Amino acid sequence: MDRRRKILRTFMKNKAALIGAIVALLITIVAIFAPLISPADPLEQDVFHRLSAPSHSHLLGTDVYGRDVLSRILWGSRVSLTVSVSSVFIAMVIGTILGMIAGFQGGKLEATIMRGVDIFMSFPTLILGLVVMAVLGSGLSKLIFAIAIALIPRFVRIAHAPTLEMREKDFVEAARALGVSSTRLLTRHILPNIFGEVLVMGTLWTATAIRMEANLSFIGLGVSPPTPTWGNMIRSGVEQLAVSHWLAIFPGIAILITVLSFNMLGDGLRDITDPKLYE
Questions:
Q1: Mind listing the pLDDT tens digit for each residue in 60-90?
Q2: Secondary structure (3-state) at 250
Q3: pTM for the structure as a whole
């Protein structure tokens, strides 16, 4: 109980992290309940009110087809969060497993995995995701897969280093001497000790995945229109920037707030996973 109170107290002291957690939670709630709180159908066209400026009837204006921008932003949050959380979860699971295996087993297996990671990490995440999307084509599942592929090497690195340290600990050596299997050692003894670092980076890279989704959608390799995503909304808004600036500005603000909130949350999680907290 004292440990939980210390964790909560440490997190609550970090005002930026607390604000980030609240905003991230609100964005998640909005994404889940977008069908209920959207003022209009995001796909419904109204050519008589196309490119309308923000007003009481359309709080954030309408786009070139007369679709309500606010509704499209709310529905676009579902795509952004689905893609980012799913891709980061897949990358976290696969990358952590590979990193732990490489760090624990060592030898040729470690060299093979880590040299492969070095090759993948020589490419910027966006370029790697772009290459995968160019090969697979557009689509929600393909977008998730592409971003996950780009992030897996990062999680391998994060899991590999602490596993190298943990395998030399006395309790691990003692467990080995008692005949405990490698699988049990990894899942019951090593994983709980490195999970904090992995979780922190997963939160921070969720923000990266949101940016990647927006970037790929912006260049036409994400989810295909008319499905609203923040990236393709900005892309269509840029064409009308001189006369209808709100089309690109409001989705951009949504991305800014979401990315900032997850980064602030990640900083807070980094504080409460600091081993010095429990000394």
A1: 999 989 899 999 999 999 988 999 999 999 9
A2: helix
A3: 0.87
Q: Which of 201, 234, 212, 217 is nearest to 129 (CA)?
A: 212
Residue with tokens 């991305």: 255
Angle at 71 between CA 48 and CA 61, to 5 degrees: 45
Contacts of 44 (CB under 8 A, 6+ apart): 67, 68
What value does the CA radius of gyration of the chain take, rounded to a whole number of Å? Answer: 22
Give the residue among 205, 212, 203 at the shortest CA–CA distance from 20.
203
**In the chain, how many domains are there?**
1
CATH number for the domain that contains residue 103: 1.10.3720.10
- Residue 21, domain extent: 2-278
Contacts of 155 (CB under 8 A, 6+ apart): 91, 92, 94, 95, 96, 99, 198, 201, 202
Contacts of 228 (CB under 8 A, 6+ apart): 42, 43, 72, 73, 75, 76, 79
Residue 172 or 6, more confident = 172
Cβ-in-10-Å burial (0-12, 13-18, 19+) of 54 comes to middle
